[in-house]
């Protein structure tokens, strides 16, 4: 007598994405040290061996889970006089999204535990926030030194608010009020 066993087809890309989703949530919620390969594997419904196979272990999983891509071009598409409103809308939208899966929040939480997380966060912010903002302000007519100072002030302000509201408190407050306040403050910093 022959018995047929129905098995779910394997799809490495889907499994990998599922592992990364659970890893992002756990790293964001618990930090690097408290997140375990077994915990992520259990949450994703896979064997811990798959995490080793796909990512090489916890460090590789962390690096993959914190890969950040944020389209910033639309925030810099427009006039300097409305920069604050565009940046604030983008920031609050991101923060109000799925915070438990936000790779930036994962990096921020892990930056105190892992030197490579702090390095990755600094490199990301330099490449995706500070430098594009500097170029935008310079293209808007500011001299290089002034554009660099204003960009650094905006970058530091946003990182400080992010740390205070997302990392230390895990609560944003009223998103409309937050967006209005961020918009006005960023615009003042941009205008000098």
TrEMBL record:
It holds the Pfam family TetR_C_16. This is HTH-type transcriptional repressor AcnR. Keywords: DNA-binding, Transcription, Transcription regulation. Residues 36-55 bind DNA. The gene is acnR_4. Residues 13-73 form the HTH tetR-type domain. It comes from the Bacteria. It comes from Actinomadura rubteroloni. Signal peptide: none annotated. One of its GO terms (molecular function) is transcription cis-regulatory region binding.
């Amino acid at each position: 007598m022959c018995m047929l066993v129905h098995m779910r087809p394997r799809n490495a890309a889907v499994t990998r994405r599922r592992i990364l989703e659970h890893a992002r949530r756990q790293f964001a919620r618990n930090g690097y040290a408290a997140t375990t390969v077994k915990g992520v594997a259990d949450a994703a419904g896979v064997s811990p061996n798959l995490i080793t196979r796909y990512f090489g272990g916890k460090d590789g999983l962390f690096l993959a889970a914190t890969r950040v891509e944020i389209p910033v071009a639309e925030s810099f598409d427009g006039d300097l006089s409305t920069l604050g409103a565009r940046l604030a809308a983008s920031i609050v939208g991101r923060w109000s999204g799925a915070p438990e899966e936000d790779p930036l929040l994962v990096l921020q939480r892990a930056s105190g535990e892992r030197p490579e997380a702090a390095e990755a966060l600094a490199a990301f912010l330099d490449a995706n926030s500070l430098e594009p903002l500097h170029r935008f302000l310079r293209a808007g007519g500011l001299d290089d030194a002034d554009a660099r100072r204003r960009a650094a002030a905006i970058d530091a302000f946003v990182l400080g608010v992010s740390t205070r509201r997302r990392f230390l408190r895990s609560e944003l407050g009223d998103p409309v009020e937050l967006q209005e306040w961020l918009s006005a403050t960023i615009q003042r910093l941009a205008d000098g």
